[in-house]
Amino acid sequence: MNESPIASVQNVSKTYQQGSRDVSALQDVSLDIGQGSFVAIMGASGSGKSTLMHLMCGLTRPNAGTVTIADQNLADLSDRDLTLFRRAKIGLVFQAFNLVPSLTAQDNILFPLFAAGLDFNTTPDPLDPDPCNNDQKVAKIAERLSITDRLSHRPDSLSGGEQQRVAIARSLITNPAIIFADEPTGSLDSDTGQSICQLLRELCDQQGRTIVVVTHEPNVAIWADDVVVLKDGRIIDQFPTNSFETPQALAAHYQAATNTQHGGSPPSGTNGQINRDGQKNAGRNDDTFTSKGSYELDQPTAS
Ligand SMILES: Nc1ncnc2c1ncn2[C@@H]1O[C@H](COP(=O)(O)OP(=O)(O)OP(=O)(O)O)[C@@H](O)[C@H]1O
């Protein structure tokens, strides 16, 4: 990684309070994500994937360690400023799409722009070399995502794949520094899921987008550049996907990593940005928290 990472997690630990018990979700995790890379975070249920993603999104704060996104240490932001930062700099994509049912696709896509206090009708997007107003911006993104003819439709008249494309368009509208996708194909059939993966890959390759995907699925992870494996709140392995020709081969390596106490064989091609540690049992024992689609969404509840 030649330049400073777009996302940096350093020695981060997160413990949840559950009644009188402490539940350790992450232990001394360090991870750097380079600008323009596509990273998949894998791990069994309860391994800490969503917690790590929430920390990087600023949806929750660590008990120890630092999270830096686009050169901003999130600990230096008040809750309000953190919300504003998240709206402007971070794109979120969810398994359940989380579109507002009463809004058209066009208005769903535009929503984060207004939530972030941006308006390309009055102030051109400084990050876009081709100045355009709000509608032109939506049109441009929609064309890239092949949803131009769906913009006037509400979510209930869109297929699952189209809804996820709208959700990805929504995540792009503010030109975020990084896009986080939590099980983005989890509600889709396998072919549609693969087309969404291909789209994410193209956004990375063609537009230099930085993409972090949380997934259980090797056939999603194989589209990434690198896979980070969590087990019991620790990173136990990190490997580039180009060593694997098929999702099955990737799955075999992943299984080997998670079945051994300290992870799989030393990852080839790692860049020293990942700390790998042994395991510590955290266990999953809380049902007050749902990792899928339960985030603070910065958008209105459907009426
Ligand atoms: N709000 C919370 N309160 C108490 N414990 C929590 C809370 N959130 C997560 N945990 C616990 O932290 C650990 C990590 O949870 P996390 O949701 O990050 O795992 P995950 O890998 O994303 O799981 P899944 O794949 O099932 O979504 C688990 O033991 C979980 O029970």
TrEMBL record:
Residues 258-303 are annotated as: Disordered. SMART domains: AAA. The keyword Protease does not apply. Pfam families: ABC_tran (PF00005). Residues 277-289 have a biased composition (Basic and acidic residues). Residues 258-276 have a biased composition (Polar residues). PROSITE patterns: ABC_TRANSPORTER_1, ABC_TRANSPORTER_2. GO terms for molecular function: ATP binding. Keywords: ATP-binding, Nucleotide-binding, Transport. Residues 7-257 form the ABC transporter domain. It comes from the Bacteria. The keyword Nucleotide-binding applies. This is ABC transport system ATP-binding protein.
